[in-house]
Specification:
Shape: globular
Strand content: 15-25%
Helix content: 10-25%
Largest sheet: 8 strands, mixed
Structural class: alpha+beta
């Protein structure tokens, strides 16, 4: 979708597809400014956002109302850019059935685009209904409804099915690569141009009592939240302190009754938690100045890729990784076996119902 069409030096880009993000790690709704051509897959051009909100899930189905609130919060940052006549491109989800259409109506109601570009697939059953005025009038959103909006609908035939190379990487592969690209920003080089492992990097020391913590993807009790945060990727956010609940023990972190709708300033890895000093040790690429505004750690469904933990070159044991020989004694089960993706032999049934091999 597009808001405003004009010749300009830069365009704004609103990312609403939390499962297939273009400029950020997955799970984010974000607003970006683009001033140069974008070439290559998403992991090649990760960048800072004008405003970003961490939803924490890969699908809006988990909490559609909160998803709409995230889109609204991020879109509010476009007001100043709109005054400067910067056009806005909105990337919506490819979810074209059921709740996905309801959420699309919500996004249209919030952004009020002047043009909607609808890509048509060669297979008709993969296309969504025409997003025209009559559709918007007759379809209710999860939050908004009854908003009459006039726009120009443009249909474009998609050639995605023609390019076989695009099938080499699945959506999960792109998400992992985007996350690796983002995490790589915190890596450091030696004098000999060798990358230092994450465990050798100097972390930031954050007191428990200075931040609020919350786990997005599931209902985790306050007593178990710190266990969930350890060795995890967290969104570094600035939430409203009025939403935080202080524990009876002032030395403990603050908690939330529900996931806050707030700005996300970046991401970090909780390298360790010290229960004696009651501090977090966090690795992040954020500058100390931006870290001053962080008061919330949110853990979502986005996890550290296994290759980060298993590929670290260290002198001793890799933290949080159990060697394969110790799996049986530690977990009581066998190591995971590699899966074979070879095509299975097909069987043919003859006219006399006799089973025969090809």
């Amino acid at each position: 979708m597009i808001v405003g069409v004009a010749r300009c030096k830069e365009v704004a880009y609103l990312e609403c597809d939390i499962g297939q993000t273009e400029f950020t790690p997955p799970g984010c709704v974000a607003l970006h400014l683009v001033s140069s051509p974008i070439l290559g897959p998403p992991f090649t051009h990760q960048r800072k956002a004008v405003r970003m909100c961490y939803f924490g899930q890969l699908s809006a189905q988990e909490d559609p109302v909160r998803y709409v609130a995230c889109v609204k919060l991020v879109h509010q940052a476009y007001a100043k850019l709109k005054a400067n006549k910067v056009p806005l491109i909105i990337n919506t989800m490819g979810w074209n059935r059921g709740m996905g259409l309801n959420l699309l109506v919500d996004v249209v109601s919030i952004t009020e685009p002047t043009h909607i570009l609808q890509f048509q697939h060669a297979s008709k059953n993969k296309n969504m209904p025409s997003i025209d005025v009559s559709f918007l009038e007759s379809t209710l959103g999860m939050v908004y409804s009854g908003r009459l909006h006039r726009h120009e609908l443009l249909r474009i035939h998609s050639g995605a099915h023609i390019h076989e190379w695009a099938k080499q990487y699945k959506p999960d592969d792109h998400r992992t690569l985007c996350l690796l690209s983002s995490v790589s920003q915190m890596l450091q080089w030696t004098v000999n141009w060798k990358l230092l492992p994450l465990e050798t990097l100097q972390p930031y020391k954050v007191s428990w009592r200075c931040v609020g913590v919350h786990v997005v993807e599931s209902s985790v009790s306050n007593s178990m939240t710190l266990y969930a945060l350890n060795a995890s990727i967290v969104a570094l956010c600035a939430a409203d302190e009025k939403e935080m609940v202080r524990s009876e023990d002032d030395s403990l972190p603050m908690f939330f009754h529900s996931t806050p709708i707030c700005r996300c300033l970046g991401f970090g890895i909780v390298r360790g938690i010290d229960p004696v000093e009651k501090v977090f040790y966090i690795l992040t690429a954020l500058s100390p100045k931006k870290l001053e505004a962080v008061n919330t750690l949110l853990k979502g469904a986005v996890t550290i890729p296994a290759c980060i933990l298993t590929s670290q070159v260290t002198s001793g044991a890799v933290p949080y990784v159990i060697p394969v020989p110790d799996v049986h004694s530690a977990l009581g089960g066998a190591a995971e076996k590699p899966r074979s993706f070879r095509k299975r032999r097909r069987y043919k049934y003859g006219p006399d119902s006799a089973l025969s091999l090809p």
